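User: I'm putting together a teaching handout on how sequence relates to shape, and I'd like one worked example. Could you take ABC transporter ATP-binding protein from Aliishimia ponticola, show the sequence you're using, and then write out its predicted structure as tokens right after it?

Assistant: Happy to. First the sequence, then the structure tokens directly below it.
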Amino acid sequence: MVQLKSKPENLRAVAPSADTGTSPVAPRDEADRRYVEVSGVGHSYSRNGPTVLRSIDLKISAGEIVALIGRSGSGKSTLLHIISGLMKPSDGAVRIDGQRVEKPSPRWVMMFQAPSLYPWMTVAQNAGLGLKYAKKTEGVDARVKEVLSLVDLAEFADRNVQDLSGGQQQRAAFARSIAPEPELLLLDEPFSALDIFTRRALQNDVREIAKRLGLTVVLVTHDVNEAVQMADRAVLLSSGPGRIAGDTEINVSEADRVSQSKKFQMETTRLRTLYTEIAGLG
Ligand SMILES: Nc1ncnc2c1ncn2[C@@H]1O[C@H](COP(=O)(O)OP(=O)(O)OP(=O)(O)O)[C@@H](O)[C@H]1O
Ligand SMILES: [Mg+2]
């Protein structure tokens, strides 16, 4: 578990409730679910090509962690690219915080399965790259120090990234993602290449950090266990074309997530059953 060495005072919480002083965590009310709004999104990669996504309507609250689960080819990565503005949908639109998404922005960052760090740079230089791209010049060193400490890599700051294990590299990539203080993280199976223990530690840490910072997260995964470990809510995609076929809250306490208690196992079984039914539709 990552221990926070200092409270990240300068990290922005993006909850709609920030002005009321209430918790930023996952408002359940449908009316609050408008921080990310995917409306009528459909997609084909070519004019006469197959429909990859059809009529996707999805609303996500600020501070909510949503797992997007679906079989290979169901369009999860396509939807994530569309939300991020890296791809334009054939139909429909995405709004983030009320603004139509037309292109990528430092307010939302994507993180992929491979950490894609620059091997000739140190851990600190890699962690600072997002800040460089966001054209931040002031306070860069302090911010890099802060995020590296957040992911427990403070003592690796001056090491070459090639000296890090796979899990540590993924932590460095996560530090780089959160350094520019994004509001929204879009994670595309970021832990799938890691061994089960490293993966579980990172899943817990990323959830804890995201909740602490009030980040909204969309996490693409095949892994039901990962969804229950990390998410407040699971959205299930059926395939051919990808459509939303299920949307369910994940009700387990933080303690149950960390200990993977009986309650956690029951929730995993419930979600797996739902997913099996839906995946069978594809
Ligand atoms: N650049 C592309 N050009 C044409 N078709 C594509 C392209 N990228 C993806 N596709 C097709 O779109 C469909 C959805 O792909 P996508 O990568 O979104 O699925 P996914 O759910 O992320 O799968 P996986 O779990 O394997 O990563 C697939 O049938 C795929 O072949
Ligand atoms: Mg994918």
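A couple of points you could highlight for students: Residues 76-77, 188 surround magnesium ion (ligand 2) (CB under 6 Å). DSSP finds nine helices and ten strands in the chain.
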